[in-house]
Specification:
Layout: E1 20-25, H1 40-47, E2 54-55, E3 60-61, E4 67-72, H2 80-96, E5 100-105, H3 110-121, E6 126-130, H4 150-158, E7 163-168, H5 173-182, E8 184-187, H6 193-202, E9 206-212, H7 234-244, E10 248-255, H8 266-282
Parallel strand pairs: 1-4, 1-5, 5-10, 6-7, 6-9, 7-8, 9-10
Antiparallel strand pairs: 2-3
Length: about 280
């Protein structure tokens, strides 16, 4: 692999020595409300230079860890399945090389490609899911490959009890009924996360963490396709990430920034900071 020309700040290690490999999935062809998430990964990379590499929250510095930035994939916008296959291939390559894939979307459907690769290597994978939306529809307007269905498709890979959902505050009634029978859903907040993370850490369970940024309240993060009132604060999200970081994380993603929907740039700045804190938290 060759280094991307514009990397996320501080993430300019060579691939061979890196422990974490970032790659972008600029795809939003199934977005159900306001499009634009396809520009999220490049905006996060570009605007990251407004940050420092040092985190006072964690007393860690990106300059002290080795992260490689693969750049953005070139994805087919006309076929969700073709895009997912490309994402799965890249995540699988990174996993096969003994590195941790860090996916930046894009809409939330991109998670499915990375989870497919992670489940292939870790059949006992658990998914921790931060989101405003349940994403458990069986289909959206007849399409089963939609960002509104991504956790339902992931459930088909993991089975019952291995998807743990937090901050959920929106969805069809049928999605909440499905969750009660098949997933571990925690509505509105991160209540129960500390206990879950402790259990998964004690069992050394492989964990995939997926963060839909619309878990944040839209008063703080309005640059997203489907904003939903009643979300969490940045510091609450950071605390949750730190709790999950104690588990055996094998893959992560951050998604659903649509940068042009917040002309102030505040949403992109928040997304950059989430990425920085996640990179530092998951580094061993």
């Amino acid at each position: 692999m060759k280094r991307n020309i514009e990397t996320f700040i501080g993430c300019d290690a060579d691939y061979e020595s890196a422990e974490i490999a970032i790659f972008g999935a600029p795809f939003d062809s199934t977005t159900s409300f306001r499009p634009g998430a396809r520009f999220g990964s490049s905006a996060i990379r570009h605007e990251s230079f407004g940050l420092e590499t040092y985190s006072p929250y964690q007393d860690k510095d990106l300059a002290d860890i080795r992260v490689f930035d693969c750049g953005d994939l070139e994805l087919c916008f006309g076929s969700a399945e073709a895009a997912l296959q490309d994402i799965e291939g890249k995540a699988g390559e990174i996993l096969a090389d003994g590195k941790l894939p860090f996916l930046i979307g894009g809409e939330h459907l991109v998670t499915l490609g990375a989870v497919r690769a992670a489940v292939r290597k870790y059949p006992d994978l658990h998914i921790i899911h931060f989101d405003a939306h349940a994403d458990l529809r069986d289909d959206y307007l007849g399409a089963q490959l939609s960002h509104a269905c991504v956790m339902r498709r992931c459930h088909e890979l993991t089975g019952d009890g291995r998807i743990h959902q937090f901050c959920i505050r929106s969805g069809e009634k049928a999605e909440f009924t499905f969750a009660a029978a098949h997933t571990d859903m925690h509505k509105f907040s991160f209540d129960g996360l500390e206990e879950l993370a402790g259990k998964l850490a004690a069992e050394n369970t492989p964990v995939y963490l997926t963060v839909d940024l619309d878990c944040l309240d839209p008063s703080l993060f309005c640059g997203t396709g489907t904003p939903e009132a009643g979300g969490v604060r940045f510091t609450e999200l950071l605390d949750a990430i730190l709790k999950v970081s104690k588990t055996n994380i094998v893959g992560v993603d951050v998604n659903e920034l649509a940068p042009m929907l917040d002309a102030s740039g505040a949403s992109t700045a928040a997304a950059c900071k989430v990425v920085r804190e996640m990179l530092l938290a998951i580094h061993e």
